[in-house]
Structures are given as structure tokens and as C-alpha cells.
Amino acid sequence: MRRIIIINPLGIGDVIFSTPLVAALKKAIPGSYIGYLCNERVSELLSADPDIDKVFVYEKDEYRDLWKSSKIECLKKAAGFLGAIRKERFDISINLSLDYQYNILCMLIGIKKRVGFNYRSRGRFLTSRVRLENFDGKHVVEHYLDMLGPLQIGADKTIAPRVYISSRDSEWADNELRRQGITDTDTIVGIICGGGASWGADADIKRWDRNKFAALADKLIEAHGVKVIFLGDKKEAALAADARKTMKGPSVDMSGETTVGQMAAVIKKCRVLITNDGGPVHVAAGLGVNTVSIFGPVDEKTYGPYPKSDKHIVISRSDVACRPCYKKFKYNKCDNRACLDSITVSEVFAAAEKILKR
């Protein structure tokens, strides 16, 4: 039982949370072959991971759109995709999503041992079910490590999430920073006003004020002479543009201009990344880069940088009664964002300065 496929079509943070599971499997099963089914956005990070032998990219929206235009072509494409997985002759599937349909597909292509969460009785078509009510109570990394139990493998909680960068992306970052006039002797602070795409149209609920990010950047430039780089995906580029309009000091804007792999390569060059809760903070943590992260509706005990370390400072409000409101995969849409709006520029500056002075 050495050929294993992991299924995780979720966002950047969730995929990074699964890397300790991948490392534990490789360590416990010598010569194992690990495939990984993910979405296109995170595929380049996984492709650079030496513990992962093959990446299968699945974009649900592509199949939905194709189904609308041509059901026959959609079925052909799905058959080809499943056929490619079947050719690998996987012995075990580990489904980290909460969608039972992946379990059906694994059964149909002949994967005999199927491990996954039994969330809301969705564990049918699994051969080994891991009980899950919700992710509250312990970190997602540890929930994912629970998948080792049915395989009689002990969970090694000393393995931290890891992120790897391809040589191509690393070279791109070197050239781009040089083009922007940033040298190896400069102290770089990365700032992301967004924090990831997984919350879609509701993402603003967990974003600190962009004008506060601007004031923070100016304060860091004035006090420490740092070079500030704004990062983020295309949908968040407007946030960085708005922030930079109110800044007095200079900055570089790469938001919306990088792939995920290129963004990771730039983050690797930073002394500290300052961002909201979201995938990029886990990219930084996985690279060993210092972070200051701002958590509002989401509980950092479950979704924060893992494991806890003095390299990662989380700023959140324990004195706001309704926080965290993100529970059982749902959150409250509130008009009063006290959990975020009460966090001051001075607090975040002090946290970043603590790291810069080390």
C-alpha cells in the first residue's frame, strides 16, 4: 500500500496545512508514491514539493462551464481526467475535502482503501472514516494528521508545514527585485491588504482597513528605512492601489502581477510579511519568514500559523464577545467590525518593529 493520492481542492492555506501529512506519509512508508489533486492556483506550490510525485489539477468551474456548453465534451474530459488518475493505480485515497463525491469517484476508479472525514455523515463510500464535527477546537494541521490513524501511522506533530519554491520562480524574484531597485542589503517588508480569495465576495469581512496598512507602511519606512512591497492576487490589486495613494513614502506594487509561486519567491526575500488572515501568511510561515497577521472573525488557534512560534505574531481581539464568529464553516455578516476596527496602527507597528529589531 505505497501509492497514495491526497485530495484537497481547497485554498492555499488548507493545502499548506496538509504538507505535514504528506511528509509523515513519506517518512512512515519508504518508497511511497504520492499524488495530489488540487486546484490550479496552488498547483505550482505543490509541484515544487519534493515529497509529492505527481499533481493532478482539477478546476470544478471548468467542468461546470463545459457541461453548460457541451455535456458530451464535459463527460469526455472527465473520463480522461479520471483515466489519468486510474493509470497511477493508487492503493489509498485521502480525501481532505468534505465532499463525498470524491469518494465515489475514487471507488469507481478502483482505489480500495479510502480515508476521509465523516462530516455530517458524508463519509459514505469511504472504507475508513475519521470523525469530524467541525474544525473548531484544534488546528487544521492536526485534523489532517488524524488521517494517519486508519493507516496505523503515528501523528508526528513536530513536522511543520513547508513551502518550496522552484528555481524558475526564485530567479524571477531576483530579477524583478533588481529591476525595482531593491538590493540584497535592503530590509524588505511585504504587505498584503487582502489575504486570499477563498471567501470570495465576502472577503472584506476579514480585512483590516487598507488606509491603516498605508499608515503602517509609512511609519515603518520612516522609523527603519525599509523597502515596502505590496503583494496579493489580481482581485486584491485595487486594495494596494488605494493604500499607496494615501502613502507619503515610496513603495513597490506587485499585487496582481505575480503567480502564486512568484509571490512566494518574493515573500521569501522579506524580513517580515504583514497581512490579514489568509493563505499568504501560511506561505510565509512555510518558508520560515517572520509574519505579523491580523485575525478578525477567524480563530487563530484553528487557522493561524502552525506551530506557534515567536517568528509569528498574531494580532487579534480576545475582548470582543462575538469573536471568533467563524464557526462550523459559517460566519456572521456584521455591521460592527469591532474585532478588526479596534486594532490600531501602533499595535501592528510595535509587532513588526519587534521582529525588525531582532
The N- and C-terminal alpha carbons lie at a distance of 47 Å
Give the name of the CATH superfamily of the largest domain.
Glycogen Phosphorylase B
How many strands, which pairing sense, and closed or not: the largest β-sheet? 6 strands, parallel
Number of strands: 12
For the record, what CATH class of the largest domain applies?
A: Alpha Beta
SSE string, helix = H, strand = E? EHHEHEHHEHEEHHEHEHEHEHEHEHH
Total domain units: 2
Quick structural gist:
By secondary structure, this protein is α/β, with parallel strands linked by helices. The protein has helices spanning 12-17, 19-28, 40-47, 60-69, 71-87, 101-108, 140-145, 167-179, 210-224, 237-245, 260-268, 279-287, 300-303, 338-341, 345-356, and strands at 3-7, 33-38, 54-57, 92-95, 113-117, 128-130, 188-192, 227-230, 252-253, 272-276, 290-294, 312-315.
